[in-house]
Amino acid sequence: MKQITRQHMRRIGFSLLTFGSEGEETLKYKIPAVLVLVVLSVALALAQTPMNTSLAPAGVVSGSFSFTTIDFPGANQTRALGLNDNGDIVGTYRDSSGVFHGYLLSQGNFTTVDVPGSIQTRVLAINNLGVIGGHFLDSSRVRHSFLLNHGAFTIFDFPGATATILQGMNDRGQVVGGYVDSSGNAHGFLMSSGNFTTIDHPGAAGGAEGGTAAGEINDRGQIVGNYLDASGIIHGFLLIAGSFSAIDYPGALDATEPNGIAANGEIVGRFDDNNGTEHGFTLIAGKFSTVDFPNAFFTEAIRVNEAGQIVGSYILAGQHAYLATPNPIRKPRLD
Q1: Which of 89, 137, 243, 273 is 20 to 30 A from residue 147's alpha carbon, by CA?
Q2: Is residue 86 in some structural domain?
Q3: What is the CATH number of the domain that holds 294?
Q4: pLDDT of res. 206
Q5: In a domain, 320, yes or no
Q6: Residues 6+ apart with CB under 8 A from 242
Q7: What dihedral angle (degrees, nearest 10) is formed by the CA atoms of 30, 32, 38, 40?
Q8: What integer is the mean pLDDT of 297-319?
Q9: Residue 49: band (very low, low, confident or very high) from pLDDT cuts 50, 70, 90
């Protein structure tokens, strides 16, 4: 049985939305016998609590945002990983026992999201229809993906995969992410109308130390993701109608990781500089701008909505989620 550490997952492109800085894990994967599509009609256990936020000082390296810190009440770590145009936010938090849970933050109230029977749940996406997506560990520590549509869970696995990791989805029901095959190789995938397609960047190193991951898909079918080349450099990509375009932040040391793309084409992600500091970025009409939470030494930008709002996390006296709202609110036009 193959063991995959968080560092390995980072190298094969699952770093930001899967494990990132959430703490060390060693995961054991085994091959599911068949594709699993199980609908569990269960209601969410609503554990709603008021939003615990604080307005941070305004200011970024480039651009103008107002930052709001988001901490799940009682958690020792919180990340924001999904955002829709209605302002709903989803993500993960770690409780005092070290267990990871998903959450939904809507209209100022938190709701915990746990897949029934799971030992860890992470939520990474929410579309404008309110459908939530993520992945979880079962009692055998096998990682599966799920969709939660207004109380009904659908569990799925890429056929033959030892781990399936949903990363993003759109309003058309299309899902992207990554999976690990039986040989330990990482690939991206697209699931559309129940059918799976593998996504492999031609420049990916392949093998146990390389691979491709798809991060998000917008309503126009445009996909962003990243891959590891033979030199150990992580590059971003934009995939449109089967054609890859490179996304590399100018001057990045060894990693550019696009994580989100809005329908208007705005892309967000993170990169590391020559000092090893990690920054968030936006990419609009070919122009990069950095996004840094004030005074933090680590900032990641994960999702962006049509109003230009961004969610992600930062490290400053612990790891916290944030919502960055541009001043004034903007709505970029379609290409």
Answers
A1: 243
A2: yes
A3: 2.120.10.30
A4: 77
A5: yes
A6: none
A7: -20
A8: 96
A9: very low
Give 51's pLDDT tier (boundaries 50, 70, 90).
very low
Q: Could you tell me the sign of the dihedral formed by the alpha carbons of 80, 312, 148, 109, in that order?
A: positive
Asked whether the predicted pLDDT for residue 258 surpasses 60, the reply is yes
Q: Please report whether residue 314 resides in a domain.
A: yes
pLDDT of residue 329: 64
The mean per-residue pLDDT over the stretch 164-191 comes to 96
Residue 214 to residue 209: CA distance in whole angstroms: 17
In a domain, 293, yes or no: yes
Burial (CB < 10 A; 0-12, 13-18, 19+), residue 66, is: middle
Average pLDDT value for residue range 82-89: 97
For the chain, give the number of residues: 335
Note down the domain range covering 33: 3-326
Report pLDDT for 208: 60
Distance of alpha carbon 236 from alpha carbon 246, whole angstroms: 6
Total of domains in the chain? 1
Predicted TM-score (pTM) of the model is 0.83
Question: For residues 158-181, b (16+ Cβ closer than 10 Å) or e, as one string?
Answer: beebbbbbbbbbbeeebbbbbbbb
